[in-house]
Amino acid sequence: MRLALLLASALLLSTLGAQTPAPSPAPAAAPAVAELEQRVGQLLTQPGATIVHLWATWCPNCGREFKDGGWQKFVEANPQTRFVFVTFWNDGNDGKAQLAAAGIGAQPNVTILAHPGPRKGDGKATAFLGTPVTWLPSTWIYDKGKLKFALNYGEVRFGILQQLLEDAQAKW
Q: What is the pTM of this model?
């Protein structure tokens, strides 16, 4: 009888423990994400316009933007603008080789960074710099540290991007 009571008590305690969820550990990437956002934030506070482009090496839409020198021509046509290429949902891979193949990276107004988060799963980021990220590529235009335009739903058209860049810097 005592043995049965002892086994029942042990079973009850183990069942109660199984029903209590363990506290979620803090994501390992959290400090790296905070550091990345701080670094980009510092770039945004410098005078002039900054374009933050979120992309991934595996993304076909992102790849199409680099074809025919699209981004390279745009970067070189706007030397006064800072460009921050941030790989996102790319498992920490910075994509420098792919950007170099597209003629991007050697320009003095280009910064290449990598978000450390994964492409899938619980650790997948849903925002960057406080702005939701739901699709790649996403292209954001800042002027004097303020977000002016956010193109969050796919490939950018460079003529439209040029107009938005000029509008972002215009005195209204």
A: 0.82
